[in-house]
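Dear colleagues,

I hope this message finds you well. In preparation for our joint manuscript, I am sending the S-protein homolog (Acer yangbiense) sequence together with its predicted structure, so that both groups work from identical material. I would be grateful if you could confirm receipt.
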Amino acid sequence: MTKLVISYFVQIVILALLFNMGQTTVEESGNDVASVHVINGLPEKSKAMKIECSLKGKSVGIFHDLVVGDEYSWIVKEKGLYFCEAIWGGLVGSWHAFQPSRDANHTSVFWLVKHNGFFLSWDNSTWIRRSTWETE
Ligand SMILES: *[C@@H]1O[C@H](CO)[C@@H](O)[C@H](O)[C@H]1NC(C)=O
Ligand SMILES: *[C@@H]1O[C@H](CO)[C@@H](O)[C@H](O)[C@H]1NC(C)=O
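The corresponding structure tokens are as follows:
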């Protein structure tokens, strides 16, 4: 009887662990800080690109097969440094998607990914290049 209870308990713990590992988003921790938007502005008929973003080494989202024109976004839940990496054909790029010292006073942070680099905007209209593509 006791063995059965222990076995049941162990299964619950394993299930809980598996469930946690499957999560790709950051846990809710109070108020939303900002939203980050990544817009694929690569030339028409470009190959799909892949983006992975993380906070403190923990993935907050992997976006596969982004096609031209698509926009991806997530909510920043804590004032930490969000780091993104993109792969497009043989090129790689990385940038700080949300950087508290730079973005803390903005509710939206926009990134436009183009053939010549990664552009930042806080209003989805005026853009400043912050990073460029590099060969792998
Ligand atoms: C945010 O705004 C406050 C008040 O205007 C200012 O003191 C602070 O330096 C700003 N922070 C950033 C990261 O721009
Ligand atoms: C940003 O601007 C583009 C082009 O004007 C528009 O399609 C998109 O919906 C805007 N995104 C947000 C979140 O406002």
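For the figure legend, we might mention the following. The first helix runs from residue 2 to 22. Confidence is low (pLDDT under 50) at residues 21-29.

With kind regards,
E.M.
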